[in-house]
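Data availability (excerpt). The following record was deposited with the supplementary files.
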Amino acid sequence: MRRRSSGSSEDGDFSPVEAPHVNSLSSLPALDLRPAAAPSQSPTKLDRRRSADKRSTPARSRRSSSVNWKPSDSRDGPIENTASPAHSTSSPPLLPANGGQAKEMEKAPESRLHGRRPRLRSPWGITLTTLVASILGIGCLFAVLHSSVTRQLDPKGCRMSYMRPSYARLDDFDTEHTRFASKYSLYLYREQGVDHGTKVKGVPILFIPGNAGSYKQVRPIAAEAANYFHDVLQHDENTAKSGIRSLDFFTVDFNEDITAFHGQTLLDQAEYLNEVIRYILSLYLDPRVSDRDPDLPDPTSVIILGHSMGGIVARTMLIMPNYQSNSINTIVTMSAPHARPPVSFDGQIVKIYQDINDYWRHAYSQQWANNNPLWHVTLVSIAGGGLDTVVPSDYASVESLVPDTHGFTAFTSTVPNVWTSMDHQAILWCDQFRKVVARAIYDVVDVNRATQTKPRAERMRVFKRWFLTGMETVAEKMVPIKDPTTLLTLEDNSNSIIAQGERLVLRNLGMTSAARAHLLPIPPPGSPGQKQFTLLTDQMLDRPGENGKIEVLFCSVFPLQSGQAGTVFASQIDLSSDAAGSTRLACKNAASDVIALPASTESTRFPFYTEHEQEVLPFSYLQYALDEISDHQFVAIVEKVTQPSHGFVVAEFSDHSQSHRTRNISLRRLLSFGTKLRLPATRPMMFEIKVPSMQSSLLAYDLEVSRQSCGDKKELFAPLVRQYLTEPYESKFFVNARDVMVSLHGVAPYVPPPLTRRSAGDGLTFQFWTDPTCDSSIDVQLSVDFMGSLGKLYMRYRTVFAAFPLLVVALVLRKQFRIYDTTGVFVSFSESLDSCLKQSIPLMLASLTLLSVSTGNPAPAGNASFWHWRNSTSTVIDFNQNDLLIGTQDPFFWFLIPLIGLICVGVCMILNYVTLVLTYALGAAFGLFSFRTGWVKNDDRRRTGPTPGFLSSSPRRRMATTAILLFLVSTFIPYQFAYLVACLVQLTTTVRAQRLASELRSTANSNFYNYVHSLLILMLWILPINMPTLVVWVHNLAVQWFTPFSSHHNVLSIMPFIVLVETLTTGKMIPRVNSRFRHFTSVLLFGISVYAAVYGVSYAYMLHYLVNLVIAWLVVVHATSESWALAGFNSLYLAKGNSIDRKRGKEP
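Predicted structure:
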């Protein structure tokens, strides 16, 4: 007779489980003289012959259960006994129980019983639905990974740096100063051949290494600073007057501590560094170790230079109890994840991030400076860009923490004369970048002040000048605020004045035998259109007094009498040849406002040059709005060279309406059709196109620029393209632009919104510098790179695989329990996944997608949404609004949820089969070394039973092992170590269960194997969340730091895992639950699946506690299999066949 279960009535996507083929005899229920309400069954004589020592006590077998939980089938009984569940409607009516039937069953031939062995589904089996879904998921994952390493890659342009380092350890900073002196140490850097002695004499700077970083990482920047002062600054007379001195670089050896994964380690470092600063400042007060000018004020603050997590430690120092007020006022960080923690596996580090970010936001929200403890602090965050694959550069943003008056975020591709992305380590040793950092620090120091730095506003001005392009709206021009420095004397008939509205074009320099000046009249204020002045040349612009080729001046007529020029102006240029009809102009030099642009010629490929290539001088570019130069009458381009030489100059005034375009196109249309734009032939030299819809960092684009025809003339320069964002300050330059790969770090997943709301017009902007003399139009085509966009998902969503797969695993396990409680069959992981793919998983992903769309915000500028409590007019910014689901409020990306879900299905199937291969391999290896008696008949082997699959230790021994492990967790070891042990024990149990199920194919054995296998998969997905903390603990032991963690010793966080794993080592199957309590298991697992999808990425550490709650519930089910009495917990540590079972009396 074949029967099929109708499945669970609560879940319609249950795939029917095929029961074994049995005859009428085998389909009879087991003989039972008790009422039908009692779920336990009495073994037959055949059962007593094969497992006489496996019987339960009469008291326990007769006990009535008020919960009606059905105990599991014995796997040591006859393998052919597959009685139908008592509740099944397809079961035959109960026949009178008599001894004749028992004898008949006892006399049944062994061959007949063996022939009725159930056809169990192999755990290796996979349906077409699961196979297709897994292949699609794995294919999508492969496409994402392949795209991340092959498409939309930024070129590497860092040049190698060289140094001669030496480190002086400061042994006096011992345990009298800090309790961490035995773990950490302090060093003073000295460049060999440049720095002499270990006495401090300059401005203190403290370098903080990052996660697993070394104190020696300070050497590139420290060596450059020492050499620059030794070779340049100390020979400049103005250096000492302006308060510039050498830099004393201190660095800390954290023994390569892992701070990204452990919050307490981060707090320990912050506490230690505050004591370090206190000690460093005390060194400058001690004449024995200080070689500082006694007339200078004693230092009261230290400049902080932090790399990676070192930047977070620096910000944490300001909220620590031992922080010395005003001891930090300048923080420069490189590749530091300010916006959010890199991973959320540790609850304490998530809380630390919340505390420090809330503190900084609250401080800068104060109306008055006296109420802001951070008013004097400047924070500059430098990100490496697309090449940084350790920390997403989106996380380096500080726009959600500090206003632009106190800090900003810039990318290395933005920094002038750097113009390249960098990986996580290269940002420390990249030669062109370390030069910029060293010079910027020198420009902000002032030893004449106790703070050792210039005022905050001046520091921000210096940092913006060094780290930004100069074309940003926050960039300050020097020409409008400085006094005239040059007197230009011109002969009326020897110098050309360009007509109003015409363009100055010089294709070659020095074509005349004398110097000459070209004057461009500045339009008067109030001229129609928004005028701006632009100038581009491939020559360096002279400063006052220099004798180069080109000097640009902004001049006004100055009625100065002869002989008085030297008393007013620092320099003068006389081009009048002492003629009587000369004109004198008072001028300001524009060299201080020069914007460096990468040289773009037909031979250049990248905006940078490598160490094996010839140096390429950048272009010089000037850009002024009319109101910035309206106080002057002329722009004078002085051509000083008198011999013909190569070089070009293009200067013009242009209208804003002619040089700026806004392409208002929706993102959907941009994805579908792209966009095309033609730059007219009469365009200005610089043309700008803004696309407001291009804000997301999840999309990559292709930009095609057509060639222009110049006829017989040669292009002055090849097309140069700049893409830029206003927040954060990210610019990328493309020289000799033809095919441009466009990627950006704009609105990114899980990144908090900025302090100032983005306007609807913000977006990616393209600037085109093209030769305007060709009189030829240029076609520009912009399209979405779909394959390249897949690669952008890797860095933004790689942490999703620590949480989102639990949605699949929890739903699969939920389905397994529902089928088991209904039919008595615990199906395999793959079979349950197949059932979930038919309804549960699609419904869950659809619900999450609807949730994402309904709570989304199509306009990044506002907060309007579907939900009525999301007030779009509220001035309060919700900095946690991107913590949920896929981390973005843009409903356009709704498809990411099903895409990630599909990938997770494939990943879960991979883990399932990897686990199967591992357990089968270990089982085979165990079988090779196990002893088996040969020449035994199959009937005899079946009659005597196999070698016991679970030879459990004594209950007292298991209880003692559990107690010792829990004691160690509460005192010394973190619970993550105990979790790793539990995973290994569970793996062993799964291997033993697999061997037993393979040798004795029965429903009971298969149930137990599928049960422990699924629990192992669940535990393996939680293991990555616990491993980082365990690695930190092992690292502390390696450096001989034996102080226990102040956290991670909660016994309740691991006790359910230990108890359940120990219970499963006895081979006990979880009992079926036929009462309403079976819904509690479903609710718990369903809750885990929802939490993993909604909050899993931002609060992954909570997944361990939620799974721990499920495990605790399973322990309760195991312990109270027959009664809710506390005595039921005693059965957890009692193996089958123990002495208690043997003391029972005869069965009735």
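Summary of structural features: Residues 1003-1038 form the longest helix (36 residues).
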